[in-house]
Amino acid sequence: TIYRRVIKELHLFRLQGLYAGGAALSNVEHRAMLAAIKSGEADRAGEAMRRHVEAAQVRMRTAYQAVAAG
Question: Which of the residues 12, 36, 38, 52 could staple to 44 if both were Cys, CB 3.0 to 4.6 A apart?
Fold first, then answer.
């Protein structure tokens, strides 16, 4: 189905972004979220999550553009 193809493509772009150095950055972002959660700082945890999602979007967009450029 079209849905499955789209999900597969998104997964491949995500992996490409992680392999291009994004995994280390993503791990740092996850540690920041976890530290905020452990310390009970909900606002800081939410902000860390927002920054992580935004950075992940940039990584995925960059991976897509690299593939599209051939």
Answer: 36
- Both tokens assigned to 45: 């945890």
> How far is 19 from 24, CA to CA, in rounded Å?
9
Query: Side chain identity at 49, as an amino acid letter?
Result: M
What is the tens place of the pLDDT at every residue in 31-52?
999 999 999 999 999 999 999 9
Length of the chain: 70
Cα distances (Å, whole numbers) of residue 39 to 25, 35, 36, 49: 21, 6, 5, 15
pTM here is 0.74
Cβ contact 34:49 at 8 Å:
no
